[in-house]
């Protein structure tokens, strides 16, 4: 469809997150997309490195993520997000996430950065 959004080549950063979340303004995600499959490498803040993989239908993603923290802890989780385009053309993701490796759920927002 002509109105579908592509995440390929975009860089997003955290702009809002719940207290039990670990992604913040210092965390950036670099996306690749092939058809409906997406992948992102991310790092920043307490996250040394992370990987996000899943599917994206042009408006909604369903992903799993795994990350390594500065203290050596690893964490994994699942999220579902709605992707939209802001008035200035940047992409925004409103995401509902849940840890799978430890207790915690929440909501976060990512926005495209230059």
Properties at a glance:
Avidin-like; 114 residues; globular; Nuclear transport factor 2 family protein; mainly beta; eight-stranded antiparallel β-barrel; Lipocalin
Summarize the structure.
It contains no helices and 8 strands. The chain is mainly β and 114 residues long. The chain has a single domain (11-112), classed as Beta Barrel (Lipocalin).
Report on the structure:
The structure is a single chain. This protein is mostly beta strands. The protein has strands spanning 11-17, 28-34, 37-44, 47-56, 60-69, 74-85, 91-99, 105-112. A hairpin with a 2-residue loop joins β3 and β4. This is Nuclear transport factor 2 family protein. It comes from Halomarina ordinaria.
Quote the beta fraction: over 45%
Number of helices: 0
Number of strands: 8
- The radius of gyration over CA amounts to 13 Å
Task: Give the H and E element order.
Answer: EEEEEEEE
Span between N and C termini? Answer: 26 Å
Taking all residues together, what is the mean pLDDT?
93
Low-confidence stretches: none
Please identify the structural class as seen in this structure: mainly beta
The CATH homologous superfamily: Avidin-like
In the CATH hierarchy, the architecture is Beta Barrel
Strand order of the largest sheet: 1-2-3-4-5-6-7-8
Strand and helix map with partners:
Elements: E1 11-17, E2 28-34, E3 37-44, E4 47-56, E5 60-69, E6 74-85, E7 91-99, E8 105-112
Antiparallel strand pairs: 1-2, 1-8, 2-3, 3-4, 4-5, 5-6, 6-7, 7-8
């Amino acid at each position: 469809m002509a109105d579908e959004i592509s995440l390929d080549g975009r860089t997003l950063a955290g702009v809002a997150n719940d207290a039990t979340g670990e992604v913040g303004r210092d965390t950036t995600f670099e996306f690749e997309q092939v058809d409906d499959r997406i992948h992102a490498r991310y790092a920043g803040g307490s996250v040394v490195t992370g990987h996000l993989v899943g599917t994206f239908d042009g408006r909604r993603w369903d992903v799993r993520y795994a990350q390594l923290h500065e203290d050596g802890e690893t964490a994994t989780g699942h999220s579902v997000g709605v992707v939209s385009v802001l008035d200035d053309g940047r992409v925004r993701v409103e995401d509902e996430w849940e840890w799978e490796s430890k207790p915690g759920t929440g909501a976060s927002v990512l926005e495209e950065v230059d």
